[in-house]
Amino acid sequence: KNRYGMGRKNFNVPPGTNIPFIAVFEDLPKNLGEFTVEAASSSLGLAEQ
């Protein structure tokens, strides 16, 4: 729910760095065997001044 991340960890992330995250899905169909998640978009961050 916090798009900026805890302690603003989503800002100025160096290339090749990992940021742990979790995705939670609710009310999935009982007969669901598998699913795929794809990134819908991304954007470049602002360079530090």
Write the layout of secondary structure elements.
Blueprint lengths: L49
How would you concisely characterize the structure shown here?
The protein is largely without helices or strands. 0% of the residues lie in helices and 0% in strands.
What does it look like?
This protein is low in regular secondary structure and 49 residues long. It is 0% helix and 0% strand. It has no helices and no strands. It is elongated. The two termini are 28 Å apart. 0% of the residues are buried.
Regions with little confidence, pLDDT below 50 for 5+ residues: none
Determine Rg (CA atoms, Å): 15 Å
Secondary structure tally, helices: 0
The overall strand count is 0
Main beta sheet = none
